Amino acid sequence: MDAKKLFVDTLIGQIRALDQFGTWASKSDEDLLQEKYVRTKEELKNIPIIADIDEMQTQDIRLIYQAVALAFEKMTGIMCSVVMEMSHEGFGRVVVFANDIVLCDKGFKDAHRFSFRTLEKLEEEGEKLLTKAQERYKKYKS
To answer: Cβ(103)–Cβ(96) under 8 Å?
Structure first.
């Protein structure tokens, strides 16, 4: 399975697993990803530069990296973990690691504005993170 499709399928699975009450059951996968992760330039203009991040936004960011970790596990059979620390102001870091190898990491300064311009950009970023994770693992294991 190609990395982009695996990432997207895994991310959708992670999101839907959290839908305890069926709130998103009637939404298509595309609409769900669009609602959670895609913001136009105009929408971003309406979000203040300095603001607190809410729990849902933090969870949405974490889901992306959990999807990378789970997709990596599906591809390789190697268990991964995600560690995320985020202040209420949106400063923080997320790290995905397997054994003692950091597969990917990202720092945040304004996480409350975290988004992608298009669904394709989200998919490309997921593919890039997953591919880079594989490359890092191979590099450090050899």
So the answer is: yes
